[in-house]
Specification:
Layout lengths: L8 H12 L2 E2 H11 L8 H13 L3 E6 L2 E6 L1 H9 L1 H49 L3 H58 L5 H26 L4 H22 L2
Antiparallel strand pairs: 1-3, 2-3
Helix pairs in contact: 2-3, 6-7, 6-8
């Protein structure tokens, strides 16, 4: 976690975001991600337990809207926020300073990239000009050798990309197995609370088949999309966490 949010400051900032407007958990995650220009992105495992703890303390409450838990600040939560306005102002200043540092670093990286690109283009123009002047057999042979080297390098890059895609497929399989276990746990917890209905055996089989079909379909579609980035994987994990919570709420009596 970002050092800005040490010593309970994430809790304070959550109260501030909910004071602005009622929000669901995934919206809170996106707001924090946008606030820090995408450099800091809290996971659902960081945000949802804290929202639940705030609700236990009576600082927030929630209602289900379109299948999502929408959290709202209570009077008690607003009172705590008002009592910590000085601390909140200090936190906002620190966040602004952190974001400015990030922006400066990004700007410097862009400048350095542009300088390097300009140098490379200049050198490339010189090389092309010199190559056009050389007509000797030795120069042409050197060019052929360079083409061979580039083809070999390209083949190596393709091989590495293929290996990377295999690793992504393995990661997807691991995630699919994890979610299958999560569905099974939700199913077991639901029946532990309410007892199985008369058609439990048939419903259980249908539900398991639905989950299996869902996992298979997602795996097929993921395979068609090519490489899966770390950012896309994190967003998928957040979506699945929220979907698990919604299904859990739906299955409970």
């Amino acid at each position: 976690m970002s050092p800005v949010f040490g010593h309970g400051r994430l809790r304070l900032y959550l109260l501030k975001l909910l004071e602005e407007s009622p929000r669901h958990g995934y919206e809170v995650i996106r707001l924090l991600q946008d606030r820090f220009l995408g450099v800091y992105s809290p996971s659902p495992g960081t945000i949802y337990p804290r929202l639940a703890r705030l609700e236990e303390e009576g600082l927030v409450t929630h209602e289900v809207v379109d299948g999502k838990k929408v959290f709202t600040l209570t009077d008690k939560g607003r009172e705590e926020l008002n009592n910590r306005l000085d601390e909140l102002a200090e936190l906002e200043q620190e966040i602004t300073a952190s974001v400015q540092d990030i922006a400066r670093e990004v700007k410097e990286d862009v400048r350095q990239t542009v300088r390097s690109l300009r140098q490379e283009l200049t050198q490339m123009a010189k090389d092309i000009n010199q190559a056009g002047k050389r007509e000797s057999r030795e120069a042409r042979q050197d060019q052929k050798d360079e083409w061979r080297r580039q083809r070999q390098q390209q083949r190596e890059e393709w091989r590495q990309q293929k290996e990377e895609w295999k690793r992504h497929k393995q990661q997807w399989r691991v995630e699919a197995e994890r979610w299958q276990r999560e569905w099974d746990r939700i199913w077991a917890e639901t029946w532990a609370l309410s007892g199985p209905p008369p058609s439990h055996g048939r419903a259980d089989a249908e539900f398991g088949q639905m989950l299996a079909d869902f996992v298979a379909r997602v795996q097929r579609e993921a395979a068609q999309q090519g490489e899966v980035t770390a950012h896309a994987l994190e967003e998928c994990r957040s979506i699945l966490d929220e979907a698990a919570a919604r299904i859990r709420d739906t299955l409970r009596p």
